[in-house]
Design brief:
The complex is a heterodimer of chains A (104) and B (180). With 104 residues, chain A is α+β, with helices and mostly antiparallel strands. Chain A contains four helices and four strands; from the N terminus they run E-H-E-E-H-E-H-H. Chain A has a four-stranded mixed beta sheet. The longest helix of chain A has 13 residues. Chain B is of the alpha+beta class and 180 residues long. Chain B has a three-stranded antiparallel beta sheet. Chain B has a three-stranded antiparallel beta sheet with strand order 2-5-4. In chain B, a hairpin with a 6-residue loop joins strand 4 and strand 5. Chain B is globular and about 50 Å long. Classes of the chains: A alpha+beta (104), B alpha+beta (180). Chains A and B meet through helix 1, strand 2 and helix 2 of A and loops of B.
């Protein structure tokens, strides 16, 4: 019996204990890559709500009008567990299909 | 007091705070100045800067009908009383890692508001090579609170700059081992 393939999450930067600790404190991480079971990858980024508000304000002060990133996902706290759970949930909701089709 | 007068006073206090920030690199007020003053600010703006934080504080106290006036003397007292908490880096290395910065893809410039992590609590960074106190930072950089934890700060560029320049400035940050 073949085991069903699952969506997985990897990181495109060095990810050691310090990075894991720091991104939770920073509340922002953009080096996440989703590997889809059917093939293909999607680059995503994570924010927590506080950091999102802080970065938006910084960008507005710098003269920008908005803060937007393709594949931006907001989660309560930036832990690996939360990031994986979010990716799993979004995969099953068809989010990554919609995201990919938007860029095709 | 008219709105114009209030605005002028707030701007005056803000200018003073900015001058403090420029001279030291940090200005972080977390406690009430006096018992009868409500410390009311929007927590989502905690990080925008300590200047805005106090700016909001002044407005809040005025809008609540109090006669409290944040004078320069009170500011000085508050700052000396501990609102200027030192920050610590884990290890003597301030090498920028890719998760520290955001690079604008169109310009290649490192964006302001993001940088290397430091912490008010030396015990929290000790495991990363010992706690090192940040003694001073170049004027082109700032130490700003970032994220949910009020003890977490980042040494970040004040303006967009190249990664090389940011790294060069970080090398000028003075770190000294924290007393054990």
């Amino acid at each position: 019996m073949t085991e069903a393939k699952q969506v997985t999450l990897s990181f495109s930067c060095e990810f050691d204990e310090r990075v894991a600790w720091e991104i939770e404190l920073k509340g922002w991480f953009e080096h996440a890559v989703v590997h889809l079971p059917e093939g293909g990858i999607v680059h995503i980024s994570f924010w927590d709500p506080v950091r999102l508000a802080q970065d938006l304000e910084t960008d507005l002060q710098a003269g920008k009008r908005c803060l937007a990133e393709p594949g931006m996902i907001v989660i309560p706290k930036l832990t690996v567990e939360n990031m994986k759970a979010a990716v799993e949930e979004l995969y099953h909701s068809g989010y990554f299909d919609r995201l990919r089709s938007a860029f095709q | 007091m008219t709105n114009e007068e209030l605005h002028a006073e707030v701007e005056s206090q803000r200018a003073y705070l900015i001058s403090c920030t420029a001279s030291d690199g940090r200005l972080y007020v977390t406690h009430e100045f006096e018992e009868n003053v409500t410390w009311a600010y929007d927590p989502t703006k905690l990080s925008t800067g300590r200047v805005l934080q106090l700016y909001n504080f002044v407005i809040a106290s005025k809008n609540n009908g109090g006669e409290y006036n944040v004078t320069q003397e009170i500011m000085d007292t508050a700052i000396q009383a501990g609102s200027l908490s030192p920050v610590y880096r884990g290890g003597a290395n301030l090498e920028v890692r890719s998760n520290d910065v955001k690079v604008d893809k169109s310009t290649g410039m490192v964006q302001p508001g993001r940088g290397v992590s430091v912490n008010v609590d030396p015990a929290k960074v000790e495991k990363f090579g010992g706690a090192f106190k940040v003694e001073s930072v170049p004027s082109e950089l700032e130490v700003i609170q970032r994220g949910m934890d009020p003890n977490h700060f980042e040494i970040a560029p004040r303006q967009a700059m190249t990664l090389e320049r940011f790294q060069e400035l970080l090398k000028q940050v003075k770190l000294v081992p924290a007393p054990k």
